[in-house]
Design a protein that fits this description.
241 residues, alpha/beta, Elongation Factor Tu (Ef-tu), domain 3, 2 domains, five-stranded parallel β-sheet
Length: 241
């Protein structure tokens, strides 16, 4: 949500109590939470929300989570959260939160990593880094503009692939680094220039999201494929939980 000057609107900085409508498993360690905002705020594909927990003694812990759902005006958003061992917020969400509960959130936040929905783009995600890219892919498919996107997702194994049932489609490729399906001719292995080069087009933006190590490796492979730095946008996910 931005003002005419391109800055973050003050409304997005106010906390509101979102109701948990549903929870579903994505992988053995990741769940998607569908939330209903009492004050709907249309997000842009690639933005995130800050989620805050407050203990009875007043102690608070907050984390940022990218929106996985396409932008709309329903007031509902989806956040996919990976459970991290020792993570204050992620462990609470996985162990305690149930449908019907309320969670404090504020947002949407962030302008650098957004896809406007009308330009060719290459999306490269590793592990949980696919979450904001899924918002972009869902937007493109909903609006009949899937041809604008090419997507490469890197996951450790089929069981650890986020949105595994929804990802497949034209222009989308999944590579597995540790364990691949028997029928996959590529086999398991880290992402290479050969994986990325066929997806590179002239005059396209590039969005990379994942761990710092993945983001750095993907950026280097794209450079080797001839992609200029000026069109690459990178969002790195830290280990906080």
């Amino acid at each position: 949500m931005t003002t005419s000057a391109g800055t973050t609107h003050r409304r997005t900085l106010r906390w509101q109590a979102a109701k948990v409508l549903s929870i579903r498993d994505e992988t053995p360690t990741a769940r998607t939470y569908r939330l209903l905002l009492p004050e709907p705020r249309r997000h842009l594909a690639g933005q995130h929300y800050v989620l805050r927990l407050t203990a009875p003694d007043g102690y608070t812990a907050s984390r940022s989570y990218s929106v996985a759902s396409a932008p709309d005006d329903t007031g509902e958003i989806e956040l996919t959260v990976e459970r991290l061992v020792g993570g204050e917020v992620s462990e609470y969400l996985h162990e305690v939160v149930e449908p019907g509960d309320e969670i404090e959130v504020r947002g949407p936040i962030g302008l650098f990593f957004v896809w406007p929905g009308d330009r060719p783009a290459l999306l490269v995600g590793g592990g949980s880094g696919v979450v904001p890219l899924m918002a972009m892919l869902r937007l493109a498919r909903r609006d009949g503009r899937a041809d604008l996107l090419r997507v490469l997702v890197s996951a450790r194994s089929p069981a650890e692939t986020y949105y595994a049932d929804e990802l497949p489609g034209d222009g989308v490729r999944v590579v597995w680094t540790r364990s691949a399906p028997p029928e996959d001719p590529r086999g398991a292995g880290r992402m290479t220039v050969a994986d990325l080069a066929p997806l590179v087009r002239a005059e396209q933006d590039v969005y990379i999201c994942g761990s710092p190590a993945f983001a750095d490796a993907a950026t280097e492979r794209l450079r080797e494929a001839g992609v200029p730095d000026g069109v690459i946008r990178v969002e790195r996910f830290g280990p906080s939980g």
